[in-house]
């Protein structure tokens, strides 16, 4: 580190001494050593430069004595040379390294969800009150028979459909990138609500196999933790090709996070870096993908639907078509807002396309090709509310994956320091002193509440539109209108502009 | 069932509680030689200092006796036990029939023969009446000599000092409270006392007392030193009150009454608890625990009393001492762990034998002391956490996980 | 009886149980007054022990045969025969600290309040219902429940 710091701290920790009772909870809870106590002088103070604004101290302080302020920009305001650019340049001038970050793209790209509005029934068609009338949120994931026949299918290679009680699943977050406590919270909530969680690429810890029936078990390029028992225990198998936060590149879980239980689950030596290659080295074509899909189906006697997860990239529709034809039952598409435990900042912030456009394009393409029934489409990447979910389904998704929202429900304050392993909230860490802060009982309850709230809102929105089943909304773009979108955008999304009639 | 409890201190009161755990019906009678409902004997020094008032002396509130249907006979002495007739004779001629009897008569101060000693010119320091008598004499500016620097003498010293009396302690041993304090701790406490204006004569005792014409006492010590004093307190120990059982068939009396593991004496239906029991350290916790168990056994419980090593907490003039087991031990066979900070008057010493705690002495830093007591009583091997024992944050987590897990699950 | 049980797996060493205990046992029942006017810092009746990453809140186990009650010279320490709660009638305490020597868990600390001795020990907030440490534990590392039948 240079002797002279070219950048002032990003945040200031301000303590109200009138309120502070010196209980030292902040010092004990700060994951980044920003809060300090001098026992000799009985004095609390902060090292502002260490503060990442994770708000743990603010939340835990029983006296409400702490506030964290964002410091003013370190130089004269400049719309081109933003603070973020300046800080990045200085950091790289000091380290010479690739900039790393965590969580999803935080740049001000246009959020299409916020430019889409939903319809509601008035006079000419009745709306439905979900409290008084049946309302179906259950949806089935997998490949549908074609053509539909009264006779039992003779096709022994058909995998079963998987019901989920709400069109919201928990997206992939590996054990290793998140704590066992966070992982368990997701598993418990998924089971309790009747939906699925996703193991991510790190395998399923032995003690959580009781939740396997609600797990999407991932097979990624590193093949960590993949064995026959794992594949057969899960409900759905997912081949991870790409991740919205870092399309085209692999993963790297540093050795410090590979603790003994993580190593055992991943089936790698303790303390070694877990490197996921950028591509699967056995997949260089759709045909290769087809081989893996059927290898997995064979290994599980065609009892598990296979999902293929890709990042939303420019050619997503054609790729999705290939995946559907390769025999996948589910295609999961992760948009450019998708989160990550660690990614190069430049990749996260500048690669990939918005999920709204990707879903619309893929749904449209598969319909045009007459193969939409062969796959379920799962949208992922930055879903912030039940309204985002409803809009994605209206654009053509069967269901969505949420992850960042679940972490926020568990306490995450989006400080984007997941890659340091120091998470003050016990989520993105393998340090037992930190991870024990997240009691999975509480975590599971909070996640269950989130699903419950969102599901209830989805029912309200469906009812307003006069729809009594989530499956009736899928791809029903007439229920969407754009605001402030240009003609190309409207065309790609397949929606009319607000004000246009049916 | 007819229960008669002779003696009215903590052993008796706890026996009542013990009986009532098993027998809600039987009649219980307590015979008390004193005119007071039970009070903790150690409270008398606090009473003398006026830190405790009359109304706070009772060990249990009046409701305790009502709720448990206890008849209390105050100011009567049991003079004879008739094992054939199963009766106790009181000093007023009343005869109390019993099915179960508890002897909890405690002890009385031992007063050695000293030339010139008369009932009128000395005090003992053991019961309420002692301090009530002493109160009138203990006025500021007067001088007192206390024979014996054990816990009783030290508490007497404290209360007299607090009343403005100038105190001189005379102790036969080479240090204060020799059974509990080793020489180093003894010296530390001696220094503390001297800093508080207390005179201390060790290796010395009284040889004669004479009342001078001015009414003051002239006290001659073995060393030849002469002391003038207004008050003389004798506090060199107690002797068990065993008279009621002396000579009865089946009863063995050594220093005190010998009891079986269930606290029964050799006489059918007759139990003993507290200071009267042979080999029992004359300490309040031990009396209370024995009383409770004796009470349960009188009602048919069949509980075993595991003899407990002594442990004691003693505070005076702001100094706090907790001692347990072989706290004064020195010698080759012991391993000593110590922490000494003379400036802060802190002294902590653990005595280990065969990697087990055999004693502990804690002065002025007594937090978590009970954990040591538990380790000592249970005879737990401390090898694996020996270096934890004197850490400032010593606690349950210092112990092996199996132990603390079990303790937290209680 | 219902007791407070610690679940060390979820104890995150925040020590808020101590803070909540102090407030619950203050005159004002107010955080700021308790600390800033009544000066009660350090008088918690629960002790958070640390051997990081492990930490655990230790407090009175309300024994069946409590040593603190047996050893109390003034009769201040009692076990309520109905609730099973072991507590100190503080105005009767003389501060001999035999209870400190007696407690096998080290769960009683010598303390002081307004110049009077006070044994710092858990009374299960007997006048309030749910103990403050449990109610305020952010991670449910403390639970208030019945575990042994008939105990």
TrEMBL record, chain A:
Residues 11-40, 43-71 form the 4Fe-4S ferredoxin-type domain. The keyword Oxidoreductase applies. Gene3D superfamilies: 3.30.70.20, Aldolase class I (3.20.20.70). [4Fe-4S] cluster 2 binds at residues 30, 51, 54, 57. [4Fe-4S] cluster 1 binds at residues 20, 23, 26, 61. Keywords: 4Fe-4S, Amino-acid biosynthesis, Glutamate biosynthesis, Iron, Iron-sulfur, Metal-binding, Oxidoreductase. One of its GO terms (molecular function) is metal ion binding. It catalyses: 2 L-glutamate + NADP(+) = L-glutamine + 2-oxoglutarate + NADPH + H(+). Belongs to the glutamate synthase family. This is glutamate synthase (NADPH). The gene is gltB_2.
Automatic annotation (TrEMBL), chain B:
Its cofactor is FAD. The keyword Flavoprotein applies. The keyword Flavoprotein applies. One of its GO terms (molecular function) is phenylglyoxylate dehydrogenase (acylating) activity. Its EC number is 1.2.1.58. Residues 2-291 form the FAD/NAD(P)-binding domain. Keywords: FAD, Flavoprotein, Oxidoreductase. Residues 310-379 form the NADH-rubredoxin oxidoreductase C-terminal domain. This is NADH-dependent phenylglyoxylate dehydrogenase subunit epsilon. The lineage of its organism: Bacteria, Bacillati, Bacillota, Clostridia, Neomoorellales. The gene is padH.
UniProtKB/TrEMBL annotation, chain C:
Signal peptide: none annotated. PANTHER family: ANAEROBIC DIMETHYL SULFOXIDE REDUCTASE CHAIN B-RELATED, PROTEIN NRFC. GO terms for molecular function: 4 iron, 4 sulfur cluster binding; metal ion binding. Residues 84-113 form the 4Fe-4S ferredoxin-type domain. The keyword Transferase does not apply. It comes from Moorella mulderi DSM 14980. Keywords: 4Fe-4S, Electron transport, Iron, Iron-sulfur, Metal-binding, Repeat, Transport. The keyword Protein biosynthesis does not apply. This is Iron-sulfur protein. InterPro entries: 4Fe4S_Fe-S-bd, 4Fe4S_Fe_S_CS, ET_IronSulfur_Cluster-Binding.
């Amino acid at each position: 580190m240079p002797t002279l710091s070219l950048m002032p701290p990003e945040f200031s920790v301000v303590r109200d001494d009138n309120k502070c009772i010196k209980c030292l909870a902040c010092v004990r809870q700060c994951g980044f050593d920003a809060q300090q106590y001098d026992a000799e002088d009985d004095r609390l103070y902060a090292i502002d430069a260490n503060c990442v604004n994770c708000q743990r101290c603010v939340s835990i302080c029983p006296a409400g004595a702490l506030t964290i302020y964002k410091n003013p920009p370190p130089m004269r305001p400049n719309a081109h040379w933003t603070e973020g650019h300046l800080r990045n340049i200085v950091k790289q001038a000091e380290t010479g390294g690739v900039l790393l970050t965590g969580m999803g793209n935080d740049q001000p790209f246009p959020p299409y969800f916020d430019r889409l509005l939903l319809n509601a029934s008035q006079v000419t068609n009745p709306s439905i009150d979900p409290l008084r009338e049946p309302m179906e949120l259950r949806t089935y994931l997998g490949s549908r028979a074609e053509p539909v026949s009264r006779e039992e299918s003779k096709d022994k290679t058909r995998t079963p459909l998987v019901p989920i009680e709400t069109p919201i699943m928990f997206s992939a977050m590996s054990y290793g990138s998140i704590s066992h406590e966070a992982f368990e919270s997701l598993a418990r909530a998924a089971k309790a609500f009747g939906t699925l969680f996703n193991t991510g690429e790190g395998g399923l810890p032995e003690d959580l196999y009781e939740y396997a029936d609600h797990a999407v078990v991932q097979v990624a390029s590193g093949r960590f933790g993949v064995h026959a028992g794992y594949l057969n225990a899960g409900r759905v198998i997912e081949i991870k090709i790409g991740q919205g936060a870092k399309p085209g590149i692999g993963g790297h879980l540093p050795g410090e996070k590979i603790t003994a239980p993580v190593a055992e689950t991943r089936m790698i030596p303790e303390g070694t870096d877990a490197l996921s290659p950028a591509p699967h080295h056995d997949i260089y074509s759709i045909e290769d993908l087809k081989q893996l899909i059927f290898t997995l189906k064979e290994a599980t006697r065609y009892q598990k639907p296979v999902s293929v997860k890709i990042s939303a990239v420019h050619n997503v529709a054609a790729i999705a078509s290939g995946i559907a034809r390769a025999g996948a039952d589910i295609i999961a598409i992760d948009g450019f807002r998708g989160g990550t435990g660690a990614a190069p900042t430049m990749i996260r912030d500048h690669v990939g396309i918005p999920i709204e456009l990707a879903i619309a394009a893929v749904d449209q393409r598969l319909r045009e090709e007459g193969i939409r029934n062969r796959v379920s489409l799962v949208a992922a990447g930055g879903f912030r509310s039940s309204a985002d979910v409803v809009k994605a389904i209206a654009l053509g998704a069967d269901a969505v994956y949420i992850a960042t929202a679940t972490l926020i429900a568990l306490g995450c304050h989006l400080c984007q320091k997941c890659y340091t392993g120091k998470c003050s909230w016990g989520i993105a860490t393998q340090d037992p002193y930190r991870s024990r802060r997240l009691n999975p009982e509480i975590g599971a309850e909070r996640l269950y509440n989130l699903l419950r709230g969102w599901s209830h809102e989805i029912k309200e929105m469906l009812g307003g539109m006069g729809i009594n089943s989530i499956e009736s909304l899928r791809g029903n773009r007439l229920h969407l209108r754009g605001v402030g979108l240009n003609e190309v955008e409207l065309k790609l999304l397949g929606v009319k502009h607000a004000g246009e009639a049916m | 069932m007819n229960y008669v409890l002779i003696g009215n201190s903590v052993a008796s009161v706890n026996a009542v509680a013990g009986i009532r755990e098993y027998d809600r019906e039987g009649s219980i009678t307590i015979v008390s030689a004193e005119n007071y409902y039970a009070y903790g004997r150690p409270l008398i020094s606090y009473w003398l200092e006026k830190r405790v008032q009359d109304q706070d002396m009772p060990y249990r509130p009046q409701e305790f006796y009502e709720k448990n249907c206890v008849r209390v006979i105050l100011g009567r002495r049991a003079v004879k036990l008739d094992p054939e007739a199963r009766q106790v004779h009181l000093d007023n001629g009343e005869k109390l029939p019993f099915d179960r009897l508890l002897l909890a008569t405690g002890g009385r101060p031992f007063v050695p023969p000293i030339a010139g000693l008369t009932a009128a010119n000395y005090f003992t320091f053991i019961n309420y009446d002692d301090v009530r008598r002493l109160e009138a004499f203990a006025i500021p500016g007067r001088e007192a000599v206390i024979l014996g620097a054990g816990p009783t003498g030290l508490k007497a010293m404290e209360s007299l000092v607090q009343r403005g009396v100038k105190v001189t302690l005379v102790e036969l041993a080479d240090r204060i409270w020799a059974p509990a304090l080793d020489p180093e701790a003894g010296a530390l406490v001696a220094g503390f006392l001297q800093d508080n204006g207390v005179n201390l004569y060790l290796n010395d005792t009284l040889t004669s007392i004479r009342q001078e014409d001015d009414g003051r006492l002239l006290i001659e010590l073995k060393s030849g030193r002469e002391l003038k004093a207004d008050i003389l307190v004798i506090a060199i120990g107690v002797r068990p009150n065993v008279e009621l059982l002396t000579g009865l068939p089946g009863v063995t009396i050594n220093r005190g009454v010998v009891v079986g593991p269930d606290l029964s004496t050799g006489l059918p239906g007759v139990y003993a608890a507290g200071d009267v029991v042979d080999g029992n350290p004359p300490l309040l916790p031990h009396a209370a625990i024995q009383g409770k168990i004796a009470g349960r056994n009188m009602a048919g419980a069949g509980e075993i009393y595991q003899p407990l090593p002594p442990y004691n907490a003693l505070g005076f003039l702001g100094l706090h001492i907790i001692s347990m087991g072989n706290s004064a031990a020195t010698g080759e066979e012991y391993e000593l762990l110590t922490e000494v900070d003379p400036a802060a008057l802190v002294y902590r010493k653990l005595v280990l034998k065969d990697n087990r705690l055999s004693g502990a002495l804690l002065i002025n830093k007594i937090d978590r002391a009970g954990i040591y007591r538990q380790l000592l009583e249970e005879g737990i091997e401390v090898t694996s956490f020996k270096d934890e024992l004197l850490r400032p944050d010593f606690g349950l987590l210092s112990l092996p996980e199996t132990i603390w897990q079990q303790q937290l699950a209680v | 009886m219902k007791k407070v049980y610690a679940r060390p797996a979820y104890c995150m060493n925040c020590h808020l149980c101590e803070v909540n205990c102090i407030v619950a046992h203050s005159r004002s029942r107010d955080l700021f007054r308790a600390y800033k006017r009544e000066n009660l810092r350090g008088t918690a009746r629960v002790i958070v022990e640390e051997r990081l990453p492990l930490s655990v809140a230790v407090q009175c186990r309300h024994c069946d045969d409590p040593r603190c009650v047996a050893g109390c010279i003034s009769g201040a320490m009692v076990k309520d025969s109905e609730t099973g709660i072991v507590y100190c009638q503080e105005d009767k305490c003389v501060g001999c600290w035999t209870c400190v020597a007696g407690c096998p868990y080290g769960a009683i600390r010598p303390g002081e309040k307004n110049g009077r001795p006070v044994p710092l020990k858990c009374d299960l907030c007997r006048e309030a219902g749910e103990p403050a440490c449990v109610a305020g534990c952010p991670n449910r590392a403390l639970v208030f429940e019945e575990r042994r039948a008939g105990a």
